[in-house]
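Late entry, evening session. Most of the bench is empty. Finally got around to the prediction I had been postponing all week. Sequence below, unchanged from the version circulated by S.P.
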Amino acid sequence: MKPQLEFAMSNGRGIGMVEGRTMGTKGFAFLVGTLAAGALLSGCASDPVRTEVDREYDEQHPGFMNKTGVWFADRGLDLVDVILLDVQFGRGFGVNVTATEYLQAGIGWWDGTSLGGRGRAWGMWDETMVHRGLGPFYWIEIERTPTWGTTTLWDHEYRYTGWDLFEENGNKAIDHDWADVGLSAQLLAIGARVAVSPIEAVDFVAGTITLGVVDIRDDDTRSELEKELREEKGLGR
């Protein structure tokens, strides 16, 4: 202890310099934090659409209980989105096994009517499809027309010809997301398809853990409201 005490007494200036640097570091950190917070606040304030979304969301769903009900409804729909399931009636043949777009195999031709659900969209739709390939080299020709069902089903009207890898990921109307795992088969007049979406599962978990703050698929009530307002104003997201 004595040598340390003598060192401290004989190097008072050194200690003062260290303390000065410590205070300087703290001051710098405080300055950076203040600037970051200011930038965040200014960024929020510079987006009038988000401000309007907050206002309209509060008007449509006032109070804690209403917002809680919306949160539970959003989580339920996110959970339903994980599964794609339908039975098919028509003509044709085919089989497809998918473990992501990079690992799939199949061949087929089908023209018929499907009954089931594409996530939160349920009902009936006419579908014509030609597909063939192996691995990432999978060619599809698809045309889907909803005929009866939930209003969300009409968002799944879709037409595409090309490589499966080049479909627009993030669009729920596409044949399937790049990470989907599923199986489909058709023989003569009947067929069926079942698939699960890991991306939708992550969206459900993220929305649950963060209490709806994180919405990977942009399909929660608040996100839909923001998309509507941006479309009205002709603004991109």
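Two things to note before I forget:
Confidence is low (pLDDT under 50) at residues 1-23, 35-45.
Residues 79-199 form one domain.
Will write this up properly tomorrow.
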